[in-house]
Design a protein that fits this description.
Layout lengths: L4 E4 L13 H17 L5 H4 L2 E8 L10 H12 L2 E15 L2 E14 L2 E16 L2 E11 L5
Parallel strand pairs: 1-3, 2-6
Antiparallel strand pairs: 3-4, 4-5, 5-6
């Protein structure tokens, strides 16, 4: 299996013009941890970032993953993709007390059948601040409609 890496960037001045607050930076950091966990080749690191009751509406499946077993099944398949790489194309982060949201666009690339596949998607992560740090309670990721 090829090496997996993740990178993030902020290509829009709207989310990078001012220095981020400590909490905004923490929430952005959790997204980068998630991206690196997804690229790790296995689901274990990804699973630790979700609360037990979190809901996942995944990028490449129509199933709602509303418990740990369903998320594990999805991420076991997704994280095994050959040469998986993801890039954040646009990111908007808001912190509202002990709840935070990351929304934007990312692109995943991976190899399938010897060819590179690209999947552009939009996302929303909702986090809850816990004694363990910011954990994902809701995550929606869907492919960008063709032609957009």
């Amino acid at each position: 299996m090829g090496r997996k890496t993740m990178s993030s960037c902020c290509s829009h001045s709207c989310c990078c013009a001012e220095k981020d607050s400590k909490e905004v930076q923490e929430v952005k950091d959790v997204l980068n941890v998630w991206l690196n966990a997804v690229a790790s080749g296995g689901p274990d690191a990804v699973m630790t970032l979700y609360t037990d009751h979190a809901v996942l509406l995944p990028t490449l499946s129509g199933k709602i993953c509303n418990d740990p077993a369903k998320r594990l099944e999805y991420f076991t398949h997704f994280t095994a993709k050959d040469s998986l790489k993801g890039t954040i194309n646009e990111l908007h982060t808001r912190v509202l007390g002990d709840v935070a949201i990351n929304s934007g666009h990312y692109t995943f690339t991976f190899k399938e059948g010897g060819k590179e596949v690209s999947a552009a998607a939009r996302f929303s992560f909702v986090y809850k601040k816990t004694p363990l740090g910011w954990l994902i309670v809701d995550h929606h990721s869907s492919l960008v409609p063709a032609g957009h």
